[in-house]
Design a protein that fits this description.
120 residues, mainly alpha, Rossmann fold, two-stranded parallel ribbon, 4 helices, 2 strands, 7% strand, globular, SGNH_hydro_sf, SGNH hydrolase-type esterase domain-containing protein
């Protein structure tokens, strides 16, 4: 998974780790384009390692000021998945039904909010 670097570090990340690769991507995007950055978490069964990754992503969010669409910890998404068992192929991949009824409305709303906030 790797380590989150110091608050002022903007280059030289360990790209062989997940967190280092995320920091590399975010640093590059922020350096080259004036665009909002959005990550999303997967809808997964409880997994301690994935939970740690989500926690570290939130630490990176504070450093880099990007948006997270957190499906993994969203109680509405979990309830919808229980109510619509055909919405997911497995614990990470939605079906067409899942995209239409659960994922797309969330992404549409949250991405619209992100784009509105980034308007000059």
């Amino acid at each position: 998974m790797g380590q989150v670097t110091g608050a002022q570090q903007r280059h030289g990340f360990d790209e062989t780790t997940t967190l280092g690769a995320i920091e590399t991507i975010v640093a590059y995007v922020q350096q080259h384009w004036a665009v909002p950055i959005v990550f999303f978490t997967c809808v997964r069964k409880h997994d301690a390692n994935y939970g740690k990754l989500v926690q570290q992503l939130k630490v990176l969010q504070k450093k880099w000021h990007f948006t997270i669409i957190d499906l993994w910890q969203d109680p509405v998404v979990k309830a919808e998945n229980r109510a619509q068992p055909l919405a997911m192929v497995d614990d990470a991949h939605p079906t067409r039904l899942g995209y239409r009824n659960i994922w797309t409305p969330i992404f549409r709303q949250q991405l619209t909010d992100v784009l509105r906030q980034s308007e000059p």
